[in-house]
């Protein structure tokens, strides 16, 4: 395995085009259902790993006051373009989710599209959870998804994905490393320029698969309380064949009336 890398640099320019089949509306329904079940139907919500802001805008349209955090300036540029077009009042921050800072606390934090899988060590995962716990209101909720080890090993495996459009094409090669529990993506992009010619770029991405017990232990060490885990497709208890899961955790350690100002 290679050292940790920055993802979504060149891919940011064509990300939305190739992700148009992502079931954002289904994810929105699921996440809003979880938040509602936890008594959070409005208020300030943070999205970690917000990318180009597609999901952030969907949550904003549901009535939540949104803050989006991402470590990719290129992805946030796209998010800001969408914000300018929609007129939605969203605050975007260029920050690392392992050490982000907010102006105050939020009612809930969410993270979708396997952003947490990009956190490659248990120590960093714990740090993310600690930051979230710090900026949640007392008993606030954190909802995040994860691709499972089953997905990386048995579904994605060592397969090759490809897609071709007039605006660009990509070849997405997957390599699973069982010992490290890591999946390496070798992404080759062909991006159409104004001249009509295509520019070739290459990116390497890493994602880690986590056992739910490992995630729960990291949450506990960070001071949070585990609430539940759900299969992202069925919204029921996960099975050995679940490909994506939602983890729900609760802030712990603050007393009501001690929110940041």
From TrEMBL:
The keyword Methyltransferase applies. GO terms for molecular function: methyltransferase activity. Keywords: Methyltransferase, Transferase. Gene3D superfamilies: S-adenosyl-L-methionine-dependent methyltransferases (2.20.25.110), Vaccinia Virus protein VP39 (3.40.50.150). The keyword Transferase applies. Signal peptide: none annotated. GO terms for biological process: methylation. InterPro entries: Methyltransf_25 (IPR041698), SAM-dependent_MTases_sf (IPR029063). Residues 45-140 form the Methyltransferase domain. This is Class I SAM-dependent methyltransferase. It comes from Jingyaoa shaoxingensis.
């Amino acid at each position: 395995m290679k050292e940790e890398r920055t993802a979504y640099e060149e891919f940011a320019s064509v990300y939305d085009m190739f992700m148009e089949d992502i079931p954002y509306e289904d994810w929105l329904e699921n996440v809003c259902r979880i938040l509602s079940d936890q008594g959070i139907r409005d208020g300030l919500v943070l999205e970690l790993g917000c990318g180009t802001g597609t999901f952030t805008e969907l949550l904003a349209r549901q009535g939540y006051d949104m803050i989006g955090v991402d470590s990719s300036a290129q992805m946030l540029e796209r998010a800001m373009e969408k914000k300018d077009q929609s007129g939605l009042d969203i605050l975007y921050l260029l920050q690392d989710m392992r050490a982000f800072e907010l102006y105050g606390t939020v009612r809930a934090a969410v993270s979708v599209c396997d952003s947490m899988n990009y956190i490659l060590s248990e120590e960093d995962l714990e740090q993310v959870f600690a930051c979230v716990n710090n900026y949640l209101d007392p008993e606030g909720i954190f909802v995040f998804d994860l691709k499972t080890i089953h997905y990386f090993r048995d579904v994605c495996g060592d397969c090759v994905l490809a897609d071709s459009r007039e605006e660009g094409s990509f070849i997405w090669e997957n390599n699973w490393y069982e010992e490290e529990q890591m999946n390496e993506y070798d992404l080759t992009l062909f991006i159409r320029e104004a001249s009509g010619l295509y520019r070739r770029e290459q990116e390497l991405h890493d994602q880690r698969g986590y056992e739910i017990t490992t995630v729960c232990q990291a949450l506990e060490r960070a001071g949070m309380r585990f609430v539940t885990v759900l299969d992202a497709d069925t919204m029921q208890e996960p099975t050995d064949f679940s490909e994506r899961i939602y983890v729900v955790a609760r802030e712990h350690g603050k007393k009501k009336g001690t929110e940041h100002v």
